[in-house]
Amino acid sequence: MLKVKWWSAPTQIGESVALSGRLDQLFPRTATFENAQPLTIRVRGVMIGEEYDWVLGDKNDIMIVTTTQFGSEPPVQRLHVMQHNVKKGWQGDFFNDLVLAIRDFKIENKILKLRIQVYDMDGVEEGLVQAVSNASGSVAVAFPHLAPYAAAVSFGVPALLNLVDNLNEHDRIIDERLTLELEEPERGHRLLQPGYFVCFKEPVEGGLFLRSDLRVLQTDRRTPFEDCSYAVLEVERLFHAQKEWEIDQKAAKLIAELNGKGQSGKAALEFLRETLDTYDKFRRLERARELQAKKTLSGDEQKLLQEITSDEALVPFLTSK
Questions:
Q1: Bridge partner residues of 3 (DSSP)
Q2: How far, in Å, CA of 180 to CA of 199, rounded?
Q3: Residue 178: which residues within 8 A CB-CB, separation 6 or more?
Q4: Among residues 28, 40, 47, 109, which one has the fewest Cβ atoms lying within 10 Å of its Cβ?
Q5: Percent of the chain with pLDDT over 90
């Protein structure tokens, strides 16, 4: 019988639905993503099935981090949980469960790489954990690699970044990767489609079910699965983030590229120049529209407007007054 770590289920669960190990098949009444559609990935919950602190009375000190990457774009890391003394069992109250949110999916982004890391932290000062928890709504927590650039950050940024970057030096609960692709069904590619994706700590056999509260059940559909830890992620054809969050996500991607974590083949300075060139063009378009809206223009304003409207890179985006 098939024994794997990643299983999946359609978004329509009812009371419970069978988990499938065939991630290369489309769910019923489901299609892969198309151009201009929204896409959101969320960590809906993690079941902690083991305890890693052997001191009597101690509980797990949990950290949950996800990393996503489209094609050769730079990866983006997200911090979801950093908490002391976490009991065994279901964990679902995260700082923010968003892994990735895209308002306008581009079909050329055919391959999405996803990594989820759930670790029991060793030797981390409780003060750092509490400070991060207190700042849970900050962009510096949501996107740790933006922390050095965020104002009014009160916790130890170097310590947090060192922990995020070297999480695999601690006690592993779950640390797995999943590649989802836009491909034809049943060709051996795990499909990028709306649904639930369940990652188990250890390979498990089939016959399991996903309940409506997203807990995994044994074959009798009544008994909770407790053989090992697992995480439940959801891929949706919706956009669940705010505009500001989407911008922060893009900023984190830029910082990753500048830090040499991208795979675009471009030097960091070249990537930054392209980004700032796009920003400059947008600001010039804004300025042109502002000048076009005025009833009268000074000589200098007319000269500037003529300069902008003569720019061949901007002409397709401008309309005459």
A1: 205
A2: 14
A3: 6, 113, 114, 115, 116, 190, 197, 199
A4: 28
A5: 52
Burial of 261-290, coded b for 16+ CB within 10 Å and e otherwise, reads bbeeeeebeebeeebeeeeeeeebeeebee
β-pair partners for 224: 217
Whole-angstrom distance, CA of residue 145 vs CA of residue 130: 19
Work out the number of other CB atoms within 10 angstroms of the CB of residue 3.
10
β-partners of residue 209 are 18, 217
CA nearest neighbour of 117 among 50, 59, 164, 73: 164
pTM of this prediction?
0.86
Check the CA dihedral 179-65-14-105 and report its sign. negative
Q: What is the pLDDT of residues 79-106, one digit of tens each?
A: 998 888 888 899 987 878 999 999 899 8
User: Do the Cβ atoms of 37 and 223 come closer than 8 Å?
Assistant: no
- Cβ 146 vs Cβ 255: under 8 Å: yes
* The pairing of beta strand 89-91 with beta strand 216-217: unpaired
